[in-house]
TrEMBL record:
Similarity annotation: Belongs to the GcvT family.
Keyword S-adenosyl-L-methionine attributed: no
Occurrences of domain GCVT N-terminal (ranges): 11-278
Native source species: Brevibacterium daeguense
SUPFAM superfamilies: Aminomethyltransferase beta-barrel domain (SSF101790), Folate-binding domain (SSF103025)
Record protein name field: Aminomethyltransferase
Amino acid sequence: MTETTPKHTPLHGVHEKLGASFTDFGGWDMPLKYGSELGEHKAVREAAGIFDLSHMGEVRVTGPDAAAFLDFALVAKYSKMKLGKARYGVIVDEHGYLLDDLITYRIAEDEYLVVPNAGNTPVVAEALTDRANQFTAEIQPAAEVTVADESGDTALIAVQGPKAEEILLATQDSEEGQQTVRELGYYAWAPLTVAGIDVFLARTGYTGEDGFELIIDNQDATALWAELVRVGDDSGLTPCGLASRDSLRLEAGMPLYGNELTRETTPFDAGLGRMVGFTTKETFFAREALEKLAESEPARVLVGLTSEGRRAARSGATVSVDGSEVGIVTSGQPSPTLGHPIALAYVDTAVSEPGSAVSVDIRGKAHDFVVVELPFYSRSAD
């Protein structure tokens, strides 16, 4: 069996100089942490963290019929998106099961940027290409749409935390640039120039905090990282790896593909059924399969679990009620911010209501947990 060497992002050398510990994630050699993962988590909650997310994909969809095509290819309706906005969504296979979750930006009337997860980028790019061929051949003959995977040429850096805006403002000398940063709304994007570098600036993130994601050409990644670190030094900007990103997204109740979202789960299982455009559009990929799935209540649904104990539930742990298995944990660990164990799990719908008491098997012993509403942590509640 041939082993595949993990790919490196354009910032790999920077991470090595910072002393990062690395891990294989989605086929990429990514920084797991630079020092203390708890320290990195705390930095994002209290100041700001900088992440290399260049392993994420970028697939550009263009052409006069790009909007109509995405309405067909994905479950939600994208033709009604306003320019400059972003939307969180999912892509399903022909049976209605999840291929990936992704963010889609509307760049222009005839242009979108789709950002899939790292390991799923080839699958998503291939699916979109195949569906473009189907769309132009069967659904809207003579339609003009092009799908281009630009992932290999593109880097992505995220700045997340309560001081993220302060740091981005520090990169701008002009009032116009500062106004762009201040006025950029959540799940929106705008062009920005930072230290002479053309940046696609998005106000999105995966941490539960305010923050920005900056998409640039590979050749500009090192210079942009250095400039952000320079201006962010006084604000406590801290390099952060995937370990803190995982604990941050878990506190925010955000699913991770491979854990909560898989080829064995549907949008309805994961609480994402509201995205499916049954009432907003007529023809779209896997509509019949999704309609059949929607006819019956999911056997198990995704919920949050918390405990007053000290032992944390881990992925794969069995969830039970009165000795009978009712679910399985998909992600879990002690919450650095909240100070008690938290977990995401798929459980039987009968025990999915907040307040339901369950037990989780942790190393052969049953520990008490309770179902709670998500997210576990919200900055708006601070």
